[in-house]
Amino acid sequence: xxxxxxxxxxxxxxxxxxxxxxxTNLTVDCVIFGYDQGDLKVLTIECDMDPFLGMYSLIGDFVxxxxxxxxxxxxxxxxCTGNDDIFLEEVQSFSEINRHPYGxxxxxxxxxxxxxxxxxxxxxxxxxxxxxxxxxxxxMAFDHKQILDLCLFSLRRSLRDSPIGFExxxxxFSLKQLQTLYEVVLDIELDKRNFRRKLRTMDILIDVxxxxxxxxxxxxxxxxxxxxxxxxxxxxxxxxxx
Amino acid sequence: xxxxxxxxxxxxxxxxxxxxxxxTNLTVDCVIFGYDQGDLKVLTIECDMDPFLGMYSLIGDFVxxxxxxxxxxxxxxxxCTGNDDIFLEEVQSFSEINRHPYGxxxxxxxxxxxxxxxxxxxxxxxxxxxxxxxxxxxxMAFDHKQILDLCLFSLRRSLRDSPIGFExxxxxFSLKQLQTLYEVVLDIELDKRNFRRKLRTMDILIDVxxxxxxxxxxxxxxxxxxxxxxxxxxxxxxxxxx
DNA sequence: TTCATATAGTGTAAAATTAACACTATCTTC
DNA sequence: GAAGATAGTGTTAATTTTACACTATATGAA
Lengths: 242, 242
Fold this sequence. Notes:
Chain A is α+β, with helices and mostly antiparallel strands. Helices cover 30% and strands 25% of the residues of chain A. Chain A is built from six helices and nine strands; from the N terminus they run αββββαβββαααββα. In chain A, the strands form two sheets. In chain A, strands 1, 2, 3, 4, 5, 6 and 7 form a seven-stranded mixed beta sheet that branches. Chain A has a two-stranded antiparallel ribbon with strand order 8-9. Chains A and B meet through strand 1 and strand 5 of A and strand 1 and strand 5 of B.
């Protein structure tokens, strides 16, 4: 005579000491943003769980006993992009009772910013990882669309008041590229001259004295982000504000 | 023959299905801010756990299987302040492996704002709940000081760009009270005339046509927050910014 | 070589916002 | 009715933001 799943769960629960009864499945889900030729993308995976089969899904995993949630998020990033040391920010938890079809799973949402060119998409993941334009995503598995939207909101806010945009561009970039990044991600238009003046007065760019290559018009000068200067000033009344 | 605790844990783990192995203890901790006569306070409890015995501690609890983390936070608030429907904001998770002496416990930090006068401190909690001045707290149990600091940082940011300050004041208040709140919480000085002009141009206050009572000098006019006006404008380009 | 094309790069003036600042008004209490 | 205490009010200068159009320089084709 066999027992069914819910009976089994009851038996297990009876064996578990009191404080264990409050345990819950905890995951992290990563919204990995990349930017590519004027298009904000997010790394998605094809969902292989039942009511959401084939739909776009974010990349996530359980938080292990031996790691913090941050470490779990970093592990996922490393796995998906081959990359350590990338920009990562916690956003919010999602804990609706029935958000996951397999049972109670609470997740903590992170977003991160990577340069698409720098990633080595390890296909050993084998799971149809792909960069999808944020604008093309109308729905996702689970509550992942909601998570994506909130992370995008959070990205936009951070982009305006801290210099994280540089994480999405190559080390050397033109002012035009930087401006376009802001325009695409924030979905606004900026005035070229005003944008440039603002950056000039902030003093956070270094002219690397190189020109854009292989363009059939006047090439733009290239700059890099003055990390040291920014780090030295940021707690000293200096405000990044775009 | 008896078995020890760690053997018992092993036995329990062996019985648990694979996905259960990733389960973790999850709590919420609430930083409950109150404001009282020019002093920002936080609701604390005396810690009754070993290495932190007697130290200030935040108020928290396990997240139950049948509730979201938000609901858990609200339950705690109701329990501590007798109050439903109070301002509540999730801030961040804390998940260092050894943050809790009893084992792995991951927590999600919330902060909330209450009017101290409005709370009915249910003493059935029995646990030495008290309002403690934020400035007087040098250390706390667990990582709670870190949590408090982050929540204070988050409160300050929100105070500047959304009208949450009103949650800390009585319904009717004088402009002076409002200004002092900002000065105390943000730890800055504000110019009286400029502060008042800014509020006037934002149009978010209603003159209730009453005067301060029982003061031995010229009484101030009282105002209330124009919730309706703010709600109708906030998605319409209107920006609260103090 | 030169001309067309495509994008880079630059300055100024008006408008809006912020910052600095000191006196009069009105209530209570003695 | 005078003294004490806090409420309430306006103007000017400085700074920041916005709006706006032309010149410069590379490539590639004729």
